[in-house]
């Protein structure tokens, strides 16, 4: 047996996942004076990159290296030859400020999670399509403008994170990502939502916050399985009627837009639990917004509302109601029917009289009426035995009234 064959057999033993074989390989190397210094050096470097220290028992160390399932590549780490034999890897993190993804990274057979945020990637290799086992691909904070068509081969992909890039279009092949449940495209500077997004029909979570979208395509209604939709911080001026097709939505975030109205089809979203339209330009709410039986949180702060629909009382499951910084002077009597309300925030409106309907809200824990021109508080407020917070700061209440309120609500934190 020549020395080359000796070395090949020894390396085969060392690369096995069995500690006994590895110990045999080390013994053979010693008895035949076979040089395995390069191999041992590679193992040491890999181990130190993972753990930051070395281990006395080399055989045990080699087993540990070859069976590792997660690895992180930091800046200035030199990848040694043995790295490419880590065929048990499930998760790979790369934070090495790379400008391109070497195709060798697409060859790990069991990889499920590839995490490459905060790098300098401008494109992905077509070989990304070989990573058919991937379930999560994180590419946020790079310089990508699109994805290769081969992305469509990742039929097991469930999460695709593309925030903080420069993406304006996506290949049509993304429609083949039938397992994709989460797509995040925030902060890409998009002025239009790529139509290809509306073809990923099994999407459940779509995040496109902080872009430059003024409208949404009518095809958005194709996403019938969507549960969470975040459109925060876009200059949206309107929503398509087809928004009403998203009947599985549980959370719709429309804050910091330029919406002056909400389409009546909003009433079709009967699964909706959280609706946030604060910091927009709403002048009225459609009556249909009151047809959302599962809504628990409604936030319409910082708009131009002067009244609320009488049907608001139909929202019997609402627990949190935020209507600050509007122009309301009263609440509908039907608010008294919203018996599950725990928080009512009416800060900075134009209430000169106490909204009597809230006195029927026996579960109310926080009532905020600060920055309103209130002059009186009724003694009946003492009925709100669950109240823990009452904010009356910056109102027109006199000292006597303030003293009375403290007497009526001795267990409540009151702010004047």
Automatic annotation (TrEMBL):
It comes from the Bacteria. Residues 126-207 form the Disease resistance R13L4/SHOC-2-like LRR domain. One of its GO terms (cellular component) is peptidoglycan-based cell wall. The keyword Repeat applies. The keyword Cytoplasm does not apply. Keywords: Leucine-rich repeat, Repeat. PROSITE patterns: LRR (PS51450). This is Leucine-rich repeat domain-containing protein. It comes from Xanthocytophaga agilis. The lineage of its organism: Bacteria, Pseudomonadati, Bacteroidota, Cytophagia, Cytophagales.
């Amino acid at each position: 047996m020549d020395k080359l064959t000796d070395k090949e057999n020894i390396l085969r033993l060392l690369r096995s996942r069995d500690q006994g074989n590895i110990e045999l390989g080390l013994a053979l190397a010693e008895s035949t004076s076979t040089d395995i210094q390069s191999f041992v050096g590679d193992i040491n470097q890999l181990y130190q990159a993972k753990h930051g220290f070395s281990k006395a028992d080399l055989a045990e160390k080699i087993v540990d290296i070859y069976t590792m399932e997660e690895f992180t590549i930091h800046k200035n780490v030199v990848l040694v030859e043995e790295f490419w034999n880590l065929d048990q890897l499930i998760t790979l993190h790369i934070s090495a400020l790379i400008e391109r993804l070497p195709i060798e990274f697409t060859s790990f057979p069991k990889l499920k999670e590839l995490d490459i945020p905060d790098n300098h990637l401008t494109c992905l290799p077509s070989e990304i399509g070989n990573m058919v086992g991937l379930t999560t691909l994180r590419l946020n904070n790079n310089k990508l403008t699109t994805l290769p068509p081969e992305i469509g081969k990742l039929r097991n992909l469930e999460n695709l994170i593309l925030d903080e890039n420069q993406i304006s279009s996506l290949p049509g092949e993304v429609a083949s990502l039938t397992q994709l449940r989460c797509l995040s495209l925030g902060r890409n500077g998009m002025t239009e939502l790529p139509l290809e997004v509306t073809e990923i029909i099994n999407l459940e979570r779509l995040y496109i916050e902080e872009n430059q979208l003024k409208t949404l395509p009518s095809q958005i209604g194709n996403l019938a399985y969507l549960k969470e939709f975040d459109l925060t911080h876009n200059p949206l001026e309107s929503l398509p009627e087809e928004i009403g097709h998203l009947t599985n939505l549980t959370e719709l975030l429309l804050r910091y837009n330029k919406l002056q109205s909400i389409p009546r089809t909003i009433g079709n979203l009967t699964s909706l639990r959280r609706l946030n339209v604060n910091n927009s330009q709403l002048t009225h709410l459609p009556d249909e917004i009151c047809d959302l039986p599962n809504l628990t949180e409604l936030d319409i702060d910082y708009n131009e509302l002067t009244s609320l629909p009488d049907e608001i009382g139909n929202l019997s499951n609402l627990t949190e109601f935020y209507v600050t910084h509007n122009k309301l002077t009263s609440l509908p009597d039907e608010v008294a029917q919203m018996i599950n309300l725990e928080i009512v925030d009416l800060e900075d409106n134009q209430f000169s009289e106490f909204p009597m309907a809230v006195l029927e809200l026996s579960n109310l824990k926080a009532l905020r009426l600060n920055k309103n021109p209130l002059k009186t508080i009724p003694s009946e407020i003492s009925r709100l035995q669950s109240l823990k917070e009452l904010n009356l700061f910056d109102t027109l209440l006199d000292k006597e009234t303030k003293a009375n309120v403290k007497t009526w609500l001795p267990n409540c934190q009151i702010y004047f």
